[in-house]
Amino acid sequence: MRTRTGGAALLAAIIGVGAQAQEIGRPEPGQTGFQPAATELARDLQSMDGLLLVIITAIVLLVTGLLLYVVWKFDARRNPTPQRFTHNATVEVIWTAVPVMILVAIAFPSLNLLYKQLTIPEADVTIKAVGNQWYWSYEYPDHEIDFSSLMVAGDYATWDDVMASEDGRADAEEYGVTRENWLLKTDAAVMVPVNAVVKVQTTANDVIHAWTVPSFGVKIDSIPGRLNELWFKAEETGVYYGQCSELCGVKHAYMPIEVHVVSAEDYAAWVNDQRADAGLPPQTVTIAGRAYGSAVLAQAE
Ligand SMILES: [Cu+2]
Fold first, then answer.
1. pLDDT for 247-264, tens place per residue?
2. Domains of the chain and CATH, by start
């Protein structure tokens, strides 16, 4: 299953998609907000969150204000004889109708976004992501590539333990593991071309997992016996991380997702390097109507 070998690592070093590539989609220490949005979906999702924050903040302020007003206005000194009524039609209509209008106002952008996430455009690249206890394996059916993607340097309790161990240091060096990306870095990243529609079909071999990359605004369950789909179109080259997002057992936290967004040329080179490793002939890779890859060069000669 694992076809990313020394050749791929060498290629990665040559085309700069290894440790040197900029890590954009990565959690930062102490971070409370979102990771940077790299797709339209993620931007929409984050602005939806911003809209909701405004709405709920306004509601909290209103309710708190009303409570404080009531406490002040109707305390025993200012209001020695309390009112005895139990119903007020006007107030009841208002506190029913206004929340309904707010929920409807939220529903429109929310359903729109859901529809956009689940309406998959014609894909340039199709990837099948399979969840396993506890790692992801990937297939590129159009290129006949498949490999498993395992977390690097996971057998240590702390980063200092990694650095204290000779094997840990060697692994960290080989795969470009740092304190910041430790527990997110894998031995074989998913490669996708920049500005291309990528469709990820996901399922699982054992229990339910979920394939997620926060910067792409995607998250969907990987369910044994079913095929769920998501799509994204990453707009900036770099490295993006995600994690399994459906509790799947004792090592749920240790099956990260690493995606490298690279140029179409680098993607085609990677595809053909993987194919060469698997003993397959070179292939032309077509992205957004343009052809890339060594087969194109061979024809031109
Ligand atoms: Cu999991």
1. 999 999 999 999 999 999
2. 6-33+120-151+186-300 (2.60.40.420), 40-118 (1.10.287.90)
